[in-house]
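May I ask you for just one protein sequence along with its backbone structure tokens in two labelled lines?

_____
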Amino acid sequence: MPSAKYTLCALAVLTAQAHASKSEEWFLHSSISPNGKQIAFSYKGDIYTVPAKGGTARPLTLHSDWDGHPVWSNDGKHIAFASDRNGNLDVYLMPSSGGKAKRLTYHSANDVPQDFAKNDKAVLFTSARQDSKDSTIFPTARLTESYTVSLNGGTPKMLSTIPASELQFSPDGKKVLYRDEKAYENEFRKHDVSAFARDVWLQDLVSGKHTQLTTFAGGDHNPVWADNNTYYYTSEEKSGAFNIWRADLDGDNKKQITDFKQFPVRSLSISDNGTLAFVHHGSVYTSKGGKPKHVKINIANDVQEDDMMPTMLGGKITEYSVSPDGKEVAFVARGEVFVASTEFGTTRAITNTPQQERSVSFHKDDRTLLYAAERGNSWGLYETSIADESEPYFFAATKLKEEVVHQVDTDSFQPIYSPDGKKIAFLSARDEIQVIDRESKKVNVALGKEHNYSYADGDITFAWAPDSYWMTADFAPRSRLFVTNIGVFPSDGSQQPRDISLSGYNDTSPSWHADGEAVLWASARYGQRDHGSWGREFDVMAAFLTQDSYDRFRFSKEEYALHKELEKKASKTEKQDDKSTEDKAEKLEIEWDNIEQRTARLTVHASDLGQAYLTKDTKALYYFARFEKGYDLWRHSIRDRKTELVAKLNARRASMTF
């Protein structure tokens, strides 16, 4: 397994036992030898071979970095595989009997071996390097070209610029079977019946002609040659699960070979005598004209890591939340929740589960954490609190108590506490914003699913107003999916959302200003247009919900100074009043009329925009923007009308908390 190279804190990880029962097997990338006697596969980031009848596996690689995707040469003397020993995946070659591995490719793209040339003098591999000058395909790393590289090394030669994977030369070497790549969909996606679903194609290397062989509306994957006129492949046709099929190149004699009801067949390969090998639900099987046989594999060698392995988490942190008192930071790394002391750096794990946790945040009491967790068959909402009243901090607590807040059959995630701490807003079934009362557990719909469509996790943003009554979210008015506007609505769902952005372009990522009387968001209305769905640029916009807040925002420096002086005098008068009350935000009375006239563009340059924050006194806007390389921190002084670079971060991603 790859060694850890991170920098924040340590987590003990339990490793699997070396001797695994069938239910515990999780082997990958099976490849049967040409003579049908051996199967190469990957396990825990190393390459092994095992007799096709089963037995004790022999490790070919025992490297600290990841090795996978083994492919046999036609004479059975060599195995090509992919390894990230130099950062990205490169193609390596080694004797099938064992020995030193030789690196064949040296590009920064991921190179994955597919097959050997019929004369065994070159390896066929896929890589996203550079499309042919004649290609009209959008250049992206997800749509790879195919190349060959000599076993002696040297510069690879492009075989085809057509996006393809799972390529195999025909027995006579004149054709190539391949799986087409149409879009960005994950190759392991199941039940994909769409225009993106993959098909099996044939490339004639003599004429250059490409012919589509399969037409099923779902996925057809993993083609391998039976002979020059017949091939096997995997498909979800009829069974709904990826099973092995056989067909002639002209479409005749089509037949389903396996009949698994659950879990897909992956990593199909074939020997010269027609024996098929494949992986099904982590186990290796063979098949030759009959019922698939499970290959019993014994991993007898010691594993590379200790049973308890310290793993540093810096670089693996996906999100964080600062406690209200600023003394702790909760974060999610490797799908677990942690809390660290901001003063001492002491860190402890809050969760330790095989399932994922995310969307962590602190309650206003500093003693409770909220997060979403994937438990059982769905995502739910959970809280962990400090159980001992005498212990003030998570990082030093000896007793923690986890409780279920909300768990139903549909997914519930992306939870956010209301500012008063009494309610939690969350996404239900991906598209609907619901609110649960922490005490009564009563749930109501705040924004119905008819107002949104989630394409990917995190693409619906919502936020509470300081009064814990109003909410804002990006939504799709007038059924304009994927072109969102900004809506404001009551958290009890008593009113439909009111569009405050009123834009024909994309408006997204709303947040509520600290004083409660303005909503900020990112808008594509001024920047580089996104008519082609790419290259959009955003500005920070703000809609002021009352005329008074808008007037204060537009103060000159002189007017602002006078206003602050008057506020200071008024504050002294209020302190003399004995009627001290609980600090509670009053419900905001929004002035809906003419709100478009109280909307302002806060940034002076459209950009690849990150998170933004307008200070409570509206004096300065801080935001992340990327003009070259990574994101940098910028500040725009509202009344000075001055924009300046605060910090050159060159960050791949960045977020801020105030």
